[in-house]
Design goal:
- The chain has 346 residues and is α/β, with parallel strands linked by helices.
- Helix content is 29%, strand content 28%.
- A seven-stranded mixed sheet has the order 3-2-1-4-5-7-6, sandwiched between helices.
- Strand 15 and strand 16 form a beta hairpin.
- Helix 3 packs antiparallel against helix 5.
- The longest helix is centred in the N-terminal third of the chain and has 14 residues.
- The two termini are 21 Å apart.
Length: 346
């Protein structure tokens, strides 16, 4: 799966709203519109903060959490002339800078822009980058994080040009964006999985955690008689790039695209083959197998009798017990210094 980052602590949300809660900044008023980039649930209810919040979140689990809290949320950024913008930062510098560029483009001149993140996120780096571009931000630490803010300058063209991220071309045939897993190269684990893909497959397949589409393209090329591939991905932005990459590399392939959180939203169809490179990191910390285990269980329910799961995993992750409990038979196909290929049959 081309998405390794799990939700950040809600402390970062509290850090973002702290300047308003502490009366360092005036709360946006009724009738005003605030763009909330990287939005997450858990925002405190502040007296006087009556502006309409337009929440943008491309990661399906966080999107669903916002919906569950009654927030209006969209996976795509749109609109302009916002009165203010709020940005939650993560660990990927390119994604943080791109969100800042979007805020600069879409907020009115003189409008407030506030950003925050945990100290291990890129908020300090972002502040330094803004300073180099001539934008001096005030700041305050709170809840193990830092919040920064400034008034949007009249002319932001130079800053936007420096901050705005461009698509990256990989192997002269794929495109991806900073912030996506393995956005500038083919992941080594995925390459190993491709080396064990079938060459004679002719049924319906699913790619769980499809990212920007690499594994689906390679399956279609190795098995040209593949009937259809359904791509499931929790990152809306990555899935949009997958659509482009599949169209450009496999224009005749029948492919469908599903923005889903497989741990909570199981597929409704049955497949002959499922391929996957599941996520195994939580915010850059130690390997955490829970999401991969949930995806294995989802794969077991989505395979036809006799159907096959083919997956790659970090060598140290304990996926074998869940494979043994969910499938009729399972085995390790191969391994190298870092990864192992596992196969299971329903």
């Amino acid at each position: 799966m081309f998405l390794r980052m799990l939700p950040m602590s809600r402390d970062a949300v509290k850090t973002l709203f702290h300047p308003f809660a502490a009366d360092m900044l005036p709360a946006p008023k009724a009738g005003e519109r605030v763009l909330f980039l990287g939005a997450e649930a858990g925002a405190p209810r502040l007296e006087g903060f009556e502006a309409e919040i337009v929440a943008v979140q491309n990661l399906r689990p966080l999107y669903r959490a916002l919906q569950a809290h009654g927030s209006e949320v969209t996976p795509e950024i749109s609109g302009e002339d916002y009165d203010a913008a709020m940005i939650l930062c993560g660990k990927h510098r390119g994604e943080n800078e791109n969100r800042m560029a979007e805020a600069l483009k879409r907020v009115k001149a003189g409008g407030l822009i506030v950003a925050a993140g945990a100290k291990e996120d890129g908020i300090v780096t972002l502040r330094k980058t803004l300073a180099k571009l001539g934008i001096e931000a005030e700041s305050t630490p709170k809840y193990h994080g830092v919040a920064i803010w400034f008034a949007r300058p009249d002319d932001v063209s130079a800053a936007v040009a420096k901050l705005e991220q461009k698509p990256v071309t990989i192997d002269n045939r794929f495109t991806a964006m900073p912030g996506m897993f393995s956005h500038d190269r083919v992941d080594d684990g995925s390459e190993l999985l491709v080396s064990r893909m079938p060459t004679d497959f002719d049924g319906n397949a699913a790619d769980f955690g499809a990212g920007w589409g690499y594994l689906s393209v390679m399956l279609a090329e190795k098995s040209p008689r593949t009937a259809r591939i359904d791509l499931f991905e929790a990152d809306y932005n990555a899935l949009e790039f997958a659509k482009t990459n599949l169209l450009e590399n496999c224009p005749r392939l029948t492919a469908r695209f599903f923005w889903q959180d497989l741990a909570a939203e199981p597929p409704k169809e049955k497949y002959d083959l499922i391929i996957m490179n599941p996520p195994f990191h939580a915010g850059g910390q130690a390997a955490e197998p829970a999401l991969g285990q949930a995806m294995i269980k989802a794969a077991a329910t989505a395979l036809r009798s006799g159907g096959k799961l083919l997956m790659v995993a970090n060598r140290g992750l304990p996926y074998e017990p869940v494979l043994a409990s969910e499938f009729r038979k399972s085995e390790e196909v191969c391994r190298n210094a870092r990864f192992k290929i596992l196969s299971a049959q329903k």
